[in-house]
Specification:
There is one protein chain. The radius of gyration is 21 Å and the shape is globular. The protein is 81% helix and 0% strand. The protein has 454 residues and is an all-alpha fold.
Length: 454
């Protein structure tokens, strides 16, 4: 296979593998009311089940994605990706067949384990196959398609819920996984690192710490929350002394890597929380069907598809700092525009303008953010760097969703929805300000910008 065809195959596989993971993180959002109707209770019990269906997946995903990055470097990116795809397919079938709420949550936990193997391996394949401006363009395309999964998910999920059943939001993963596994066969496995060991203590501390912290937040068990925080602190200390840490703290010595991950906390925490609350409000308060709620969010998807690759290329040429600064602020303004929404949520005047502005801001942000973080570390660390950033984004999302009950007060109405919109906008603006302060453009990029201006 020639280089051009190989690169095209790598990019397609990376997009499909990551897409199914990102899609499953959001496709269930519009299915949550239907899931609660069939498997949940009433009042706060419904909200608790809805939170656990989302966070069950994110807990194991966020806890194990760092370990998955190490597995990718140790055993080869293609092998780890294939195992993750197969496991994700099996777990998706278990979710689709779940007879009760607790069984569904357990299946979602297993799905997160497999999902953790997908993103770092797929993105590391791109980093290994592309370089220079081509790499920035490829990451931009990867970002456009995988990033839109976070937004197209409600549309796909809504259609399946209304036309068939909420269970089909899980069945749909199976054919995509089969196609990806077939395409993966002819791709080289990538470099394998020898002489390293898996960080089992670190993985155990991260998993138990996250699980305890999120359980404490959702169920208001504050002693459990404190235990989770203590375990996460022990995880950081463990990573300082183990021989082969799954989170190499040395990477945070790179300025853009460290500050880029801080920005990721704010931006992706906002995305997860905002999408969760918006999908619930449109259905449970405004009376949209699941399909209507999904279609309502499509404009942001189209903006991502049309613009992300372009902004990724521009960030590769001029540097990521100003894109990462302005993009989240623009996205935050989109959420502020949604404050006009009342219980009717009139689409053309109250929903659409905010979503269009949000989609523009997200398009400006995501590809430069990814490129800045991965460009700050050596290529040999691409797997673990990608895993770290994705772990940060998923953990940020699971924490903000876990806090949903605290922020909305247990009952979602217009007032609590507006409060949630403000929190989302503030998080996005904070992400932009962090980037302004912390991110630095590579010297070559600054020079290119000066020459272009001249």
């Amino acid at each position: 296979m020639d280089t051009v065809r190989l690169r095209q195959r790598v990019l397609l596989v990376a997009i499909l593998a990551s897409f199914v993971s990102f899609l499953d993180g959001t496709v269930v959002n519009v299915a949550l009311p239907a899931i609660a109707d069939e498997l949940g209770g009433t009042g706060e019990e419904r909200l608790s089940l809805q939170q656990w269906v989302v966070d069950g997946y994110l807990i194991t995903l966020g806890a194990l994605i760092l370990l998955a990055g190490s597995l990718s470097d140790l055993y080869g990116r293609r092998r780890v990706l294939a195992i993750g795809l197969a496991g994700f397919g099996v777990a998706s079938v278990l979710c689709a067949l779940a007879p009760t709420g607790p069984v569904l949550v357990l299946a979602r936990l297993l799905q997160g384990v497999a999902g953790a193997l997908l993103v770092p391996s797929s993105l590391a394949l791109i980093v290994g196959a592309f370089d220079g401006e081509a790499q920035g363009r490829a990451i931009g395309r990867w970002t456009a398609w995988t990033g839109t999964a976070m937004i197209v998910g409600p549309f796909v999920g809504g259609g399946l819920v209304d036309l068939v059943s909420w269970r089909w939001v899980f069945w749909i993963n199976v054919p995509v996984i089969v196609v990806t596994l077939v395409l993966l066969r002819d791709i080289p496995g990538g470099a394998v690192t020898t002489g390293r060991r898996l960080d089992v203590p670190g993985a155990a501390l991260a998993a138990t710490g996250l699980a305890a912290a999120v359980y404490g937040l959702i169920e208001a068990q504050w002693l459990v929350l404190v235990l989770g925080v203590v375990l996460l602190g022990a995880f950081v200390m463990c990573e300082r002394v183990v021989t082969d840490p799954m989170l190499p703290l040395r990477m945070f010595a790179a300025r853009n890597f460290a500050w880029g991950n801080v920005a990721t906390v704010a931006v992706y925490g906002a995305l997860a929380f905002g999408g969760f609350v918006l999908s619930l409000f449109l259905q449970q308060v405004a009376g949209y069907s699941a399909t209507e709620a999904g279609v309502a969010q499509l404009p942001a998807t189209f903006a991502m598809l049309a613009l992300s690759s372009r902004f990724g290329t521009l960030a590769g040429r001029y540097g990521p700092r100003w894109f990462m600064t302005l993009g989240p602020v623009v996205a935050g303004c989109g959420y502020l525009l949604m404050l006009t929404m009342d219980a009717g949520a009139t689409y053309l005047t109250q929903v659409l303008p905010g979503l269009l502005v949000f989609g523009l801001g997200l398009s400006i942000t995501v590809a430069p953010l990814t490129a800045a973080i991965l460009g700050a570390v050596p290529s040999a660390d691409a797997g673990i760097a990608s895993a770290t950033n994705n772990a940060v984004s998923r953990v940020a999302g699971l924490v903000t969703v876990a806090l949903a009950g605290v922020i909305v007060g247990g009952v979602l109405d217009v007032a609590s929805f507006h409060r949630a919109l403000l929190v989302t906008a503030l998080l996005l603006v904070a992400g932009g300000l962090v980037s302004l302060v912390g991110i630095r453009d590579p010297r070559g990029a600054r020079g290119a910008a000066v020459r272009e201006a001249a």
